[in-house]
Amino acid sequence: MREFKGRPPGAGAGDMSRLTEALRPSIALTPRQAGDARRMRREGKEPPEIAALLDAPVDEVEKALCQMRMPRPETTRGTLNVTLAAHAVVMRERQGNEPLWVTMDRLLDELFRLRAEAGQRVSPPRPSSRRRSAPEAPLLDLLGGARRH
């Protein structure tokens, strides 16, 4: 079985792109005022109320607030931060042009099913020809092929 040997992210990982920063509109608030506006918004205050408290134009406060990340009430997707080696494995397992989330769901379902079977198994594993016939388990073909070589 393969072991992933990825490298950790670099020093600037997670920083905003310089291009993104250059494309953002200029805000007539100081960085401290913009930070205070965002804090007040997270506390539940509305933009006109925040503008009055900061003694700033509502338009400028709204510009500062539109750059905020806000939690979505019902998230349906997430980001999977993996090494390039793990990404390559997922891409090889992809069937046709299926979305990556479908591939990940399928791989994880298969992993959990195999783990459950392994935990319940008392006797030795069945012959590989029996396992290879399962259409819902494409990874078993890869693992069986890897053992033969």
Textual characterization of the structure:
By secondary structure, the protein is an all-alpha fold. Among the domains are: 25-66, no CATH class; 96-148, no CATH class. 55% of the residues lie in helices and 0% in strands. The chain has 8 helices and no strands. Helix 3 packs across helix 4 (58-66). The longest helix is centred in the last third of the chain and has 21 residues, at 100-120.
Short description:
The protein is mostly helical and 149 residues long. Helix content is 55%, strand content 0%.
Percentage of residues in strands? under 5%
Helix proportion:
55-70%
Q: Whole-Å distance between the termini?
A: 12 Å
How many E strands? 0
Query: Could you give a short account of the major beta sheet?
Result: none
**Number of helical segments with 4 or more residues:** 8
Return residue spans where pLDDT drops below 50 for at least 5 consecutive residues: 145-149
Judging from the principal axes of the Cα atoms, what is the shape? elongated
SSE series:
HHHHHHHH
How would you describe this structure in keywords?
single chain; 149 residues; mainly alpha; 55% helix; disordered C terminus
List the helices and strands and how they pair.
Layout: H1 18-23, H2 31-42, H3 47-54, H4 58-66, H5 84-93, H6 100-120, H7 128-132, H8 138-148
Helix pairs in contact: 2-3, 3-4
